[in-house]
Design a protein that fits this description.
Chain A is mostly helical. Chain A has helices at 2-7, 15-42, 49-74, 82-98, 103-126, 132-151, 175-193, 195-205, 207-212, 217-241, 254-264, 276-295, 302-324, and strands at 169-170, 173-174. Classes of the chains: A mainly alpha, B alpha/beta.
């Protein structure tokens, strides 16, 4: 057997390797193409510039939050509080803006707060060794409860126009699209080519082995959560500035949508595998599905059901792949 | 005499891979039939077919002369076939008696569990296995590996098994426990039970088996009476070539002292350990499971930092509080359990090999992909790792090749002290010889090697000096010439030091 294996060397970059590493990403890309072509044929208005722009603008923040979420899940953890965090940070940004703080402060301070809050979560997970689902469930309640108590659910309106970064346009495209693409590509390169990214994959793949190899797991976990906090902060700014008002509540089910994007994008819920490109593609796919339901005259409430089906299908496909390997 | 089980022309494929080709195998009552082969030869598949876990693509299987087809392990059990798997399939949170009778517990007339009958039955079964020391009410999770195995065997007997399949039953056992297991196997055989015995340990096979069947690459190489073959013969049947030296120890001039340990202790698990380790030396540490050998390694490597004592590198005292610091000082640790502590299984060979030096081959935070690939390719060539290439995932490699990846990872870190914990556990004979050759070569290049092994032939064959540990302490030290099997073996077992087998086993985990 060994002789045969040696006798037929396979080029390092064979299709098999690409399919193995990017299987889920390719599947989603295919699904996106099928969706756009199919729905476009049924109703060409689906492919109009307005329709496409609204798909991206309204959902870029989900894709950006999913980048950080994917990193957290790849490291073998999870964060169920990201929706509440985005709600809180968005409200902070809006409050600062209506009270006349400089826009740069309005944008950066919430991001720093996001980093700080999630670094704390990371410390509790890594050093106090509390499972991340427990820490973030606690954080979810604290943030959600705190937000509603503090604001009473009041809407923030008359936001200054220079604060509305999500509505800025460059070459006709809204800024959220640039943010989404640039952050996804940067994060993907970072995860794949930096020593830190490798460490994250290693920790998620086998924490015990990573530790015995001399990797400082604790620090890396804190760093992953902090970075996730940064992405949540950026997502919150885009979320807060996409409409003329901020609802100062937690967007319903946002954490589930973000986690779903990561998992459907090919990030194994067990940690150690997946890419942020997959999660961004999955976030776009959800947005496109949601939007296509309108063009197909189907109730938008089906979107959640479709998302649920996709999670199950993804996990089944993942298990089938594992069994083959 | 009718065979208990007779297979002929069995074939099985997984996708395009033919794992069994036209294999025949049979077991008679009161016989131990050893099944031998390198990893990947098809032994596990054959076992699973007999146990009803998978069904063959072709061929015939007869039990007591009647053709059978098992749709499930339950059907196989109904035909009197029981399997003791390598990874024991017991429930840690249930008691010994509950585990033995799980799925076929005696019931009272009311349909409730008949506890007195269950406990009495379990007691009788364990007594018949010469294990009166095992409490039927203790939770299985608290038992040592050796005792869990006895529970597993009792479970097989409770189902009135006529054929017991044992998959590497001694792989995780120290020599004394292995001997005890072998006497249990003999006892079963004398009662007329047929036994399929899979093991990599050839001496055991010569001590136990009546016949031996060798598989290679899914094909049946031959079935022989044990009296017709010798060790060299079996090895060449397994690997298809003769292996000249099972333990290719090369004499290397002893260099300077690299590592010195003085009165090292970790809690009460490792106590008062002092030794020196020279460049170019292989220092073997022998002992039973639970003697504190792995714990000593983990203390030196900083996983469980020492609670007292001193570690000196090149004569300078160092404080090692984490594996990261140990790595920085040039110490490498190849753990006992590859799957658990050695490898990132979903990642590629390339990513695993570079993991210990990932910071060093990164420039401005970005991993130098060219250097990394070169490192992986060099490791594949140098260590003879059988893989499709650097991009293959390590979970797809065989045990021996996975171990080579772990070795390559640490050698890439250019350590000066290499600690190897059970370097060849669960690895087939061919790969074992390769690992031993690599070990010799590394020592020849001036590496100081500390080798922990439960296999006495390995310790004696590879070590320049042997330390024997018992109860967390070093009890004897031997130079190579004085390290005879009898002397080392008796130092390992002599005078029970108050710790029962139970607690020793439990702390081994």
């Amino acid at each position: 057997m060994s002789a045969q294996t040696l006798a037929r060397p396979v080029p390092a970059r064979s299709w098999r390797v690409v399919a193995e590493s990017y299987g889920q990403e390719l599947v989603i890309l295919g699904a996106l193409v099928v969706l756009f072509v199919g729905v476009g044929l049924y109703n060409p208005r689906f492919l109009s510039a307005t329709s496409l722009t609204s798909i991206f603008v309204g959902n870029a923040y989900i894709a950006i939050a999913a980048i950080g979420m994917s990193m957290v899940i790849i490291s073998g953890n999870i964060d169920v509080s990201v929706g509440s965090l985005i709600g809180v940070l968005g409200t902070i940004a809006g409050t600062l803006a209506v009270n006349g703080a400089p826009v740069v402060v309005c944008w950066l301070l919430p991001i720093l707060i996001g980093v700080a809050i999630n670094a704390l979560v990371g410390v509790l997970v890594a050093y106090a060794r509390i499972p991340s689902i427990v820490v973030t469930l606690g954080m979810l309640s604290i943030l959600k409860g705190g937000l509603i108590s503090a604001t009473g659910g009041a809407w923030i309106s008359s936001l200054p126009p220079e604060f509305m970064i999500a509505q800025f346009r460059l070459f006709g495209l809204p800024s959220s699209v640039y943010f989404m693409v640039i952050l996804t590509v940067a994060a993907a390169l970072w995860m794949r080519h930096s020593a830190f990214g490798r460490t994250i994959y290693a920790i998620g793949g086998n924490p015990e082995a990573a530790r015995v190899t001399g990797i400082r797991i604790e620090r890396s976990v804190v760093a992953v959560f902090a970075i996730h906090g940064m992405f949540a902060g950026i997502a919150a700014i885009l979320f807060a500035t996409q409409l003329q008002v901020i609802q100062s509540t937690v967007p319903p089910n946002l954490e589930l949508t973000v986690i779903t994007a990561s998992v459907v994008g090919g990030v194994s819920i067990l940690g150690g595998t997946g890419t942020v490109i997959g999660s961004t593609l999955a976030a776009i796919l959800f947005a496109a599905i949601g939007s296509s339901l309108v063009f197909l005259n189907v109730s938008a409430y089906w979107l959640r059901a479709v998302q649920g089906l996709m999670i199950l299908a993804t996990v089944l496909a993942d298990m089938a792949r594992r069994r083959r390997a | 005499m009718t065979e208990l089980i007779a297979l002929s022309g069995i074939s099985k494929s997984f996708g395009p891979v033919k794992v069994l080709k036209d294999v025949g195998f049979d077991v008679r009552p009161g016989e131990v039939h050893a099944l031998l082969g390198e990893n990947g030869a098809g032994k596990s598949t054959l076992i699973k077919i007999m146990a009803g876990v998978i069904s063959p693509d072709g061929g015939e299987m007869k039990v007591n002369g009647r053709p059978v087809r098992f749709a499930s392990p339950r059907e196989a059990a109904a035909h009197g076939i029981a399997t003791v798997y390598q990874e024991l399939l017991l429930f840690p949170e249930l008691t010994v008696a509950e585990n033995i009778y799980l799925g076929h517990a005696p019931k009272t007339r009311l349909g409730t569990l008949d506890w007195p009958a269950m406990r009495a039955g379990a007691r009788a079964l364990l007594d018949s296995l010469d294990s009166p020391d095992l409490d039927v009410d203790v939770l299985v999770g608290k038992l040592s590996v050796a005792n869990r195995q006895r529970v597993e065997i009792a479970k097989a007997l409770s189902q009135d098994a006529k054929l017991v399949i044992m998959d590497e039953p001694t792989a995780a056992l120290a020599d004394a426990d292995a001997k005890r297991l072998m006497s249990v196997v003999k006892m079963l055989r004398d009662r007329g039970v047929g036994i399929v015995y899979v093991s990599h340990r050839l001496p055991e096979i010569f001590a136990l088996a009546d016949r031996v069947t060798v598989l290679r690459d899914g094909a049946h190489v031959g079935t022989r009476a044990i009296s017709e073959v010798d060790e060299a013969h079996l090895v060449s049947m397994m690997v298809g070539r003769a292996i000249d030296h099972l333990f290719p120890k090369v004499d290397v001039p002893r260099g300077d002292v690299v590592l010195e340990v003085r009165n090292l202790a970790y809690r009460d698990v490792v106590q008062d350990i002092s030794f020196t380790l020279h460049a170019g030396e292989i220092l073997g540490i022998a002992g039973l499971v639970g003697a504190g050998r792995t714990e000593l390694a983990l203390t030196i490597f900083g996983v469980t930092p020492a609670t007292s004592g001193e570690i000196l590198l090149d004569g300078k005292p160092v404080a090692i509080k984490s594996p990261g610091e140990a790595r920085g000082l040039g110490i490498a640790y190849i753990p006992e359990d590859r799957g658990l502590q050695g490898l990132i299984r979903p990642q590629t060979v390339r990513e695993n090999v570079s993991l210990a030096v990932i910071d060093r081959i990164a420039k401005a935070l970005v991993v130098d992909r060219g250097r990394e690939s070169a490192l992986a390719k060099e490791a594949i060539a140098r260590f003879g790792i059988r893989t499709r290439g650097p991009e293959q995932r390590v979970r797809q490699l065989s045990g021996g090749n996975q171990q080579k990846v772990v070795l390559a990872k640490w050698v890439a870190a250019e350590p000066r002290v290499l600690i190897m914990d059970e370097p060849t556990r669960g690895i087939d004979v061919g790969a074992k010889a390769e690992i031993h050759a690599l070990m010799s070569r590394l020592a020849g290049q001036g590496l100081a090697v500390l080798m922990i092994s439960s296999e006495l032939p390995e310790v004696l064959g590879m070590s320049d000096r042997v330390l024997v540990m018992r109860g967390g302490r070093i009890v004897r030290a031997f130079e190579r010439d004085a390290a005879t099997p009898d002397a080392v073996g008796s130092a390992m077992t002599a005078a029970k030091s108050g710790r029962s087998l139970e607690s020793a086993g439990a702390s081994a985990g």
